[in-house]
Amino acid sequence: YLLRIINENQKLNINIDSKIDSCILNIDQAMALGIITNEVLNNALKHHPEKNRCIISLNFKKSKNFITLTIKDNGLGFIPPKYTESFGLEMINEFTSKLKSSNIEFIKNNGTTFILKFEL
Question: What is the arrangement of strands in the sheet containing 55-63, beginning at the earlier edge strand?
Fold first, then answer.
């Protein structure tokens, strides 16, 4: 939905490749995951230097009792500072803490890769 709105309003060519495993989340997990995903996607689109060449890969993988969400973009790359006053990063950290045994990682390599792992 977000992609459709951006492409219609700004006439951009943004591609999102997604692979999503099926699983059942409780309402708290679903809300936290939705807010985290929305923030990471918004940041990937907002900070991409060539909006008409933005490619995003989104993978949601269930393995036994764990979920791994990976969002990768082809932008400039970003590693968050250890201490930040960024509302978006604080929000990501806050909602990540609501997920059992959760961990996030940012990797800068030909863009940014965001990885979230948590237990169901």
Answer: 15-20, 55-63, 66-73, 112-119, 103-108
